[in-house]
Amino acid sequence: MTQNPVLAAAPLPTGFDVVRSTAASRAALGVSIVLVLLAASLPLWGESSWMREFVEIACYFIFAMMWNLLAGYGGMVSIGQQAFFGFGGYVMLMLGNFAGLNPFVAIPLGALAAGVIAVPVSYVAFRLSGGYFAIGTWVIAEVFRLSFANISAVGGGSGTTLTALRGIERATRESVTYWMALACVVAAVALVYLFLRSKRGLALLAIRDNEVAAESQGIPVARMKLAVYVVAAFGAGLAGALYFLGNLRISPDAAFSVNWTAFAIFMVVIGGIGRIEGPLVGALIFWALNKFLSDYGTWYLLGLGLLAIVVTIFFKQGLWGFAQQRWGWSLFPTQRVLVRGGMER
């Protein structure tokens, strides 16, 4: 039986070492731990509005991170990920309102349901490729929207309210929602980072670059693509369940709007596609623009479009990609670099 050369470890030349981290990444790890611990204490001293803003940013970031995993690393450009975003939100609401389950417990279950439903959906989506795949995923999302719009138990086209939180005090609800959002952000970054640093992550990049060549080297292309598609759906469902828990209301037009994927594409392109830091930078920029400029109506949308055009023309790899090329910044390095023994990066 031949060993997969992509996944196999090759012997190192004498006097060389494989370096997988940088001084910047090690410093970033320490700073990140301090920031997470500080952020975890926010409900003890911060204002409730700050927690709500963080939950919104967290949902943007997680959704953009999953789209980046799917398209930026997996090469599967989808404009229908809102199908799983809305599905996770609706499952969370139904488990809370109808099954009597604590909505906070229902959040990971909603995400799990989105990942499960992605398996049969993939049988349809993976029959298409390229632009047809992108349009096909959009059509699938519209099928989800129309299906939930015709379910009267969840309010039909007008939507419904999450009533399962009525017995929980507002301060407790906001604090727990915030802590769950923080935990979801940390988990999303950690899991995606560890996956991309693994041999499976290398295989995924090989599939993105050339499916035929990757398969000829023994990589199970179909299985890898399905796994990434399911994980991206799980993450999108997690973001949706978290978002509508904080919003307390859901409707088909809000849950399955194509704007969610459009916003994710904007965030990833602005920050830098195919980089873990990209969705984080893009989510912060998008939130700031949405926070301070949304009152300007159509001028706000024109500003988003103008910014996207400027970045794609002058910073083709996104703002973080430009910074990485110019100054060598890499907070989450996934590549392996061969250096002489004793040398530091």
Automatic annotation (TrEMBL):
Domain of life (superkingdom): Bacteria
Annotated compartments: Cell membrane
Record-annotated membrane-spanning stretches: 27-45, 57-76, 176-196, 226-245, 257-276, 296-315
InterPro entries reported for this sequence: ABC_transp_permease (IPR001851), LivM-like (IPR043428)
CDD domains: TM_PBP1_LivM_like
Presence of keyword Cell membrane: yes
Pfam families membership: BPD_transp_2 (PF02653)
Keywords assigned by UniProt, alphabetized: Cell membrane, Membrane, Transmembrane, Transmembrane helix
Membrane-related topology note: Multi-pass membrane protein
PANTHER family (alphabetical): ABC TRANSPORTER ATP-BINDING PROTEIN, HIGH-AFFINITY BRANCHED-CHAIN AMINO ACID TRANSPORT SYSTEM PERMEASE
Protein name: Branched-chain amino acid ABC transporter permease
Species this chain originates from: Variovorax defluvii
